[in-house]
Amino acid sequence: MASGFRLIFATSLLLALLDLCRGSTIGICYGRNADDLPTPDKAAQLVQLHNIKYVRIYDSNIQVLKAFGNTGVELMIGVPNSDLLAISQYQSNADTWLKNSILPYYPATKITYITVGAEVTESPSNFSAQVVPAMRNVLTALKKVGLSKKIKVSTTHSLGVLSRSFPPSAGAFNSSHASFLKPLLEFLAENQSPFMVDIYPYYAYRDSPSNVTLDYALFESSSDVIDPNTGLLYTNMLDAQIDAIYYALMALNFKTIKIMVTETGWPSKGSPKETAATPDNAQTYNTNLIRHVINNTGTPAKPGERLDIYIFSLFNENRKPGLDSERNWGLFYPDQTSVYNLDFTGKGSADVITQANVTSSNVTTWCIASSKASELDLQNALDWACGPGNVDCTAIQPSQPCFEPDNTVAHASFAFNNYYQQNGATDVACSFGGTGIKVDKNPKRSSRLSGWQGVFDVYVSGWKASFSFNCPSNLLSGSSYA
Ligand SMILES: *[C@@H]1O[C@H](CO)[C@@H](O)[C@H](O)[C@H]1NC(C)=O
Ligand SMILES: *[C@@H]1O[C@H](CO)[C@@H](O)[C@H](O)[C@H]1NC(C)=O
Ligand SMILES: *[C@@H]1O[C@H](CO)[C@@H](O)[C@H](O)[C@H]1NC(C)=O
Ligand SMILES: *[C@@H]1O[C@H](CO)[C@@H](O)[C@H](O)[C@H]1NC(C)=O
Ligand SMILES: *[C@@H]1O[C@H](CO)[C@@H](O)[C@H](O)[C@H]1NC(C)=O
Ligand SMILES: *[C@@H]1O[C@H](CO)[C@@H](O)[C@H](O)[C@H]1NC(C)=O
């Protein structure tokens, strides 16, 4: 008995440590309120291509669950507000939902969170009384099949649950929602589930530009905002809003509940009055957000605390009602091309400097396929480059001049490199979900082809990559070097 206990204890300690070491994560929201989106299979490919590991959806659509099967991507799925009543009323409804909508696809599809209702305090219909009973029934259903430790149950909130968010240390929940929040927070604490909140510095800026500077909202501020009660310095609005939630939880003595940001982002386009909704600002916000999160800085009140954040949204959604900005939160257009470049690794900044050096020192840089990448990842990336990426891939078709050597690494290298050269040779243009590698060593010149040939290996940060071009110069972008 005693050794069994020790083993279990050691295992859970190890798991706790692994959890601590996991670091902050960036995911993406995959909203589908549109009539022109690619199929879920295509969307899942796009997500993998950009190396995104966490995805939030708003329901439990079967096609979407299937599309993410065996991809390793972790899904947060949702019970829509309209289904809360049924699930809150009868345990059997929750059991049936789990049995029919989730279990057939689990664990091939890695589901880790279920959001039961979304932003109910914003809804004109008052769903709030149904949320906690529905959460309890979903949790009970999970317990019955032994999944309550693997799949966490929570619900999402808007920042409107607070009556006060400034200064952060004065953060407080709106007492009108007390009868909803009290049992909810007890449920979260008891089950180690996170408090989920959608946070939009964009709205804070849009609605009171005289009180919030654009730089502060975009993580670009050169001066700090000081919380007079704590003396903590805030360099950006997102941190301040997260800490306002943290202090609101502390004020009610819920000290163990973690906060998770289930939506944030910036629109790339808006109505004429929404002057801050531009591709530049959206790129700045999301780029800085990713860097900030990946850096594991935490927030001023909780330095070093892991942050899990989902960017809203994968695609522009043409059927969302409201102002123009509502339909323009996407990182991608429905045809899967980027609205603006975004480096999901958050590590682009250092490399940009390297690249400037490389250019000025007159060495051509190339983007080629990593031979470490899996065949499937390479094929997906190749399909993307030759499709939405707009690379002309005629030359790598059978009997065309760049077809040999006939393998995925060689074909992907051709497509990656042409995409990279056509898109400004920036680091982001050589990402391909981690399967692209930028190199500054040239392949062999071939007199026979008056182009490039040879398959030889280079080592980049200890990884083996392969040059596999066998191609006339005029078909290979970036080969102007003589
Ligand atoms: C919503 O319903 C609950 C319980 O029925 C009630 O306590 C609460 O005041 C209502 N909230 C609003 C905003 O109407
Ligand atoms: C608190 O919530 C109630 C009900 O939704 C709302 O009418 C009121 O304006 C809110 N108070 C604050 C300070 O936000
Ligand atoms: C700006 O802040 C002041 C003081 O906190 C407040 O009274 C005012 O309503 C705010 N203005 C806007 C547009 O939110
Ligand atoms: C990253 O972390 C370091 C040290 O914790 C900090 O000085 C730096 O400002 C952080 N960078 C970003 C982008 O948050
Ligand atoms: C890169 O450029 C900077 C500034 O021009 C220079 O100081 C540095 O030595 C260069 N590095 C290399 C490797 O050429
Ligand atoms: C770049 O290299 C080529 C060939 O080595 C040389 O002819 C050319 O003058 C160089 N250009 C610059 C700007 O150094």
TrEMBL record:
GO terms for molecular function: glucan endo-1,3-beta-D-glucosidase activity. It comes from Prunus persica. Gene3D superfamilies: 1.20.58.1040, Glycosidases. PANTHER family: GLUCAN ENDO-1,3-BETA-GLUCOSIDASE BG1-RELATED-RELATED (PTHR32227). One of its GO terms (cellular component) is plasma membrane. This is glucan endo-1,3-beta-D-glucosidase. It is a lipid-anchor; GPI-anchor. Coiled coil: none annotated.
